[in-house]
Write a structure and sequence with these properties.
Order of helices and strands: EHHEEEHEH
CATH superfamily: Gcn5-related N-acetyltransferase (GNAT)
Number of domains: 1
Helix content: 25-40%
Number of helices: 4
Number of strands: 5
Structural class: alpha+beta
């Protein structure tokens, strides 16, 4: 299936928020807060040094999105990146779009001198884990642990 990637602009925020709400509904551990999400999008769009967001499109129609955030890692020799969120509408899953999206992100990362690309996947989501292994991601013997400072009082 032929797709393209469109950098998210301010006029794309509403569709992006609708995709985010669908993604968060699939993962009940993530609470969707439209105000919080909107603020985060605006902040990311205003500073490309933090990352990028793209709409995934088929025939210029949004069918999903992907967010890449940028960081720095001594372990990986400099800049690293994280696939923060990826969502593809269910009707378009299983058609090679995920592979095309990962390939697109790898090209972007190379152009940004990123030394490592990371992602996280729910432990129960064995289907996604299999896909990510298939496209070259490997597990390591570590746990991702998080302290959410943004929402604590």
């Amino acid at each position: 299936m032929q797709i393209n990637f469109k950098s998210v602009e301010n006029n794309d925020i509403e569709i992006l928020l609708s995709f985010m709400q669908k993604l968060y509904a699939v993962d009940s551990s993530i609470l969707f807060n439209i105000v919080f999400a909107h603020q985060a999008i605006i902040q990311l769009l205003s500073d490309e040094s933090m990352g990028r967001i793209w709409l995934i499109q088929s025939q210029n129609q949004g069918i999903g999105y992907v967010t890449l955030t940028l960081g720095y890692s001594l372990e990986y020799g400099g800049r690293d990146a994280f696939i923060d969120e990826i969502y593809i509408e269910p009707a378009f899953q299983g058609k090679g779009i995920g592979k095309q999206t990962i390939s697109f992100l790898e090209e972007i990362c190379i152009s940004l001198n990123v030394g490592a690309l990371h992602l996280e996947v729910e432990r129960e989501n064995t289907s996604a884990q299999g896909f990510y292994r298939q496209v070259g991601f490997t597990e390591h013997n570590r746990y991702l642990m998080t302290k959410d400072l943004s929402r604590s009082a």
